[in-house]
Structures are given as C-alpha cells and as structure tokens.
Predict the 3D structure of the following.
Amino acid sequence: MVRAVFPGSFDPVHNGHIDIARRAANIFEEVIVAVYDKPQKDLLFTPQERLDLVNEAFKEDRRIRATLFSGLTVDFCRKNDVQVIVRGLRVFSDFEHEFRMALANHHLAPEIEVVAFITSEDHSFLSGSTVKEIASLGGDVRDFVPEHVRELISERFKDGKNSFPISSLRD
Ligand code: ADP
C-alpha cells in the first residue's frame, strides 16, 4: 500500500488544495493531509481551526484523512509509514521553492519520493493569502473555498474585525 502525505499550512484549505488531495487519492491508497502547526506565515486560523476546516472538507472522502503535525515532514513520513510527499505546483515562482525542498527532503530521506501535481487551470492563482486578502477587503470568496470555510472566514472579518496584510489586490 502506498501512503502519501500532503503537508501545508492550509490557512485556510481552499479549492486548489482540495483538488490536489483528491487527485493524489486517485493514485495513492491513502492521503494524509498534514496541517503544519507553526508555519512561518501570517496566520488567520489556529492549528485546530485549520485542521477542523480540512476535516470538514474531506468528511465524505474515506481515502483522505487529516492530522496536525510539527517538525520535519520526512520524520512524519517515517513515523507514519508514508512513502510519498505530495506537493502542488502553481506558477513558476513555486517551482524554485518546491525544487529546493524536494532536494533537501530527498537528501534527508532518500527512500521517500516527492511527487508534485500541476495545479488545475481554474486554481492556478489561488493561495491561502489570496483568499484572506479578498475576504478581508469584503470580497466574495465562494468560488475559491467550500461553504464552511467561507462562513468562518466571513465571520472572522465581519465589521472590520481582524485585518490581513494586503500585498497586491489594491495595487
Ligand atoms: P498556500 O500557498 O495556499 O498558503 P500551503 O502553504 O498550505 O498553501 O501549501 C500546501 C501545498 O499546496 C503546497 O505544495 C502548495 O504549492 C500547494 N498549493 C497551494 N495552493 C495551490 C493551488 N491553487 N493549486 C495547486 N497547489 C496548491
């Protein structure tokens, strides 16, 4: 049985992630979506909230399960009998980062393969930050995230509550 892990911050899980996890589950027997507890990013949701949102997104897909994790992805793989690390590739700028991480992980654990899926056209611009930026400016994110994610994110930004660093949507 080939088991794969799809690690990330998932702040929050969006349709780009869901597509990659489902496509990975068409190839590997089990996909574990591993929610990294403390990524070096501006986070909106707690680790438990991010995990709950992922669990809800995949509740009807028995091939995919989710968990929190910390530490090295390769250590997670070894502890959980995982042979493959799944990643998603959107634009060229992802490539350099993913390439470096894949080589580092391969150096640390040559027995574990990194498999990168090319994003679907519809999701090529989608990231957790884009979703948060749009929602924080009062935009509609229903095309980008499942309904339960849209509800929590709208609630988080209601009445000017919370702000999120805006990078590009107002350029
Ligand atoms: P984000 O960049 O959206 O904040 P993460 O940091 O949680 O997402 O990324 C986890 C993995 O999901 C990474 O491999 C990332 O490249 C991939 N990913 C994120 N968004 C997309 C997308 N729209 N299409 C394909 N893969 C994606």
